[in-house]
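worker-03 picked up job from queue 'complexes'. Input manifest follows; two sequence lines, order preserved.
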Amino acid sequence: MGTTVTLVKESPLPTRKARSAAPAAGKRRGRRENLAGYLFMSPWIAGFLLLTAGPMVASLYFAFTDYNLFNSPKWIGFDNFTKMFDDPRWQKSVEVTAKYVVIGTPLKLLLALGVALLLAQSRRGQAFYRAAFYAPSLIGASVSIAFVWRSIFSDDAVVDRTMALFGVHSGGWVGDPDWILYCLVALAVWQFGAPMVIFLAGLKQVPKELYEAAAMDGAGPFRRFWSITLPMISPVLFFNVLLETIHSFQIFGSAYVVSNASCGPADATLVYTCYLYQQGFKNAQMGFASAMAWMLLLAVALVTAVLFWSQKKWVHYEEDAR
Amino acid sequence: MSATTTPTPSEPLGGIGRKRARSLLWHLGSLLVLAVVLYPVIWVIGASFKPSKDIINSLDLFPAHPILANFTGLADGIADISIWSFFRNSLIYSLGAVAGILISCSLTAYAFAKIRFAGRNVLFALMIGTLLLPYHVLLIPQYVMFQKMELINTYVPLLLGKFLATEAFFVFLMVQFMRNLPKELDEAARIDGCGHLRTYWSIVLPLCRPALITSAIFTFINAWNDFMGPLIYLNEPSKYTVSLGLTMFRDSDGVAANYGGLIAMSLVALLPVLLFFLAFQRYLIDGMATSGLKG
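worker-03 finished. Artifact:
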């Protein structure tokens, strides 16, 4: 995402230059360009107002009301929020989601980076492996795969029996409140292909001379990774960390299907959005659900802000890139 | 093991054996990852040919006596709904989404990339901002809005956003692509008297084919896989998409009465995505790769 931000800054402002050059004709042309621009943009502008900005305002208002879709919203101040903080199920959903994000995201990114490093050495079959490893990212979000996951992690099924051989855990993962979350984590990690492809593209852009020079100076493989590879791909790493973190905060479908729509057992897979769904669409607590949604937005905004702030310390952008 | 201790693996002699060892290790590592990645897919293929009672507990990847009953059973449909109905609905949703994204996102991207209008940079920043916005903040008010408009149980709530370019990722992808097209082309078009609509349609769009194909395939797959949208907006089984249809295979206790049917249907539901992937994997992977890099 750092890339996009620099893009915003860099996008040139030729409008003013064009205007000052030939005042009269430029003005007319500028007006025509404005009209054309807004005409082309009109679907997006309509969508932004109707489906993004408008709903955000409405959602903020609902968050402070008691609203069940059939009555008209009744202003109750911060009641939804105080109720939320006291609600043990809300606390549980925060805990489950935090656990999922904190365990799943680093594992997924580590695997993505590790496999990308492996594949970056061009050898025969590289393109095949790259494609095959990417495939789970496309099908992983489907209900089909969620059902497959539920099946292979069931009691006495293949994962259970294999892991029991290593003495890890036996007795089924899906039915056990202490283990089912790891089943979801495994499903997320299985989809390491998307960040891997982005890592690979980043690794390809590291100049080969740097490695040759370092090898001449006697730097070993770890030193080369730490001092060359990691700094050179840090913008890509940042992009992946940001996107994967935000993405995993919003897990819904896999938790819903793997737990058989129960978010159980014992609320063990009650991820944040599942609880939001239950409150909003099962209990018709639109006000409470809106308040929950805004807490999620705040959490995501906070994480994004912290990541962007930390970026200064560890992400290296090449100054002469453009 | 000794292969990794010396830093320069380029001496002519002795280097050959080391090179071969490294190559072997590389292939071993890749194959190991491949096995883990492919296992669930191979599992579902094998399981769909097993009788229901063997699906979970039998460790054989492929059954000794494969049966077709799971697939032939699908022809009966589920709860009086034909399987084709789910597929038809998913197709309507997915193809509608593709049409919407291609039209609306390319128009928006053209404005950002090729038209110099006042406020462009502000709008671009807003558009990028929506990339990071969790969808769930919009979920409740959008539902309330569509409910007031009596559009629940139609495909309008699922498709409207696609026709109004709310998928910022694809706008961004197309902007990046259009910015990299040679400027001389649209300048020449303007000198020849082409308006923006003409330039967009006859010059920019044809050149953007790779970006359009990438967006179309991603959109199709996302809509095909979408679960939350249909779950919230569709409440009549005859309107269900494949994702929702699949969940009908379990009863109220969450136990699938017809486990074989569930697994066979899961496989069939995966097929379009897998086929698209095999046909267009280059476009998908390149599209994914460039999203993380400087345009």
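worker-03 released lock.
Chain A touches chain B through 110 residues (CB under 8 Å).
Chain A has 16 helices and two strands.
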